[in-house]
Write a structure and sequence with these properties.
The structure is a single chain. The protein has one domain: Nucleoside Triphosphate Pyrophosphohydrolase (Alpha-Beta Complex), CATH 3.90.79. It has 5 helices and 8 strands, in the order E-E-E-H-E-E-H-E-H-H-E-E-H. It is α/β, with parallel strands linked by helices. Strand 7 and strand 8 form a beta hairpin.
């Protein structure tokens, strides 16, 4: 189970990390420990990667990443907005330098160019959910699930 933070600043920019073990940029966060609650895992892993002391509570979206040859990944995405002053303090802590190459504040329109497709869709879905609190919470591969969700429409078309 992955637990990530969608962290935005007053301009609406999103904080992204570029981990050495992944292709492209992603939201800060990481795996929950055994028995650890998702919001606490997000708090711990975001702090470890960015130095930001944030406290998450409600999940913004839950996104399932299907894998054809291994178990699927459940991604819990939590939201936090930081002040301009707090945004300036985001840095890679010394103990994370070996696994995080860079961090950057990125405008929403530039996310797809930096992130792998699945990560970009997850971030877009989380930003939409942040702007529209009644938007779908449950996603598969960054696409909403349900009668009006993209994933539902794609699955229905493919199944015909």
């Amino acid at each position: 189970m992955e637990c990530q933070g969608l962290i935005t600043d007053p301009r609406g920019f999103v904080l992204l990390v570029n981990p050495d073990d992944r292709d492209g940029w992603t939201l800060p966060g990481g795996p929950a420990r055994s028995g650890e609650l998702p919001h606490l895992a997000a708090t711990r892993t975001v702090r470890a990667e960015t130095g930001l002391e944030l406290h998450f509570s409600d999940a913004l979206i839950v996104d399932i990443t299907p894998h054809p040859y291994s178990p699927q990944t459940v991604n819990h995405v939590f939201a936090a907005q930081v002040t301009t002053q707090a945004a300036a303090t985001a840095t890679i802590p010394a103990r994370a330098l070996a696994r995080i190459g860079e961090i950057a504040w990125v405008g929403p329109g530039h996310v797809p160019g930096r992130c792998a497709d699945g990560h970009a869709r997850r971030i877009r879905s989380a930003l939409l959910r942040l702007a529209a609190p009644f938007a779908p919470v449950y996603h598969v591969d960054g696409r909403a699930v349900g009668p009006e969700g993209e994933h539902r429409r794609r699955t229905t078309r493919a199944g015909r």
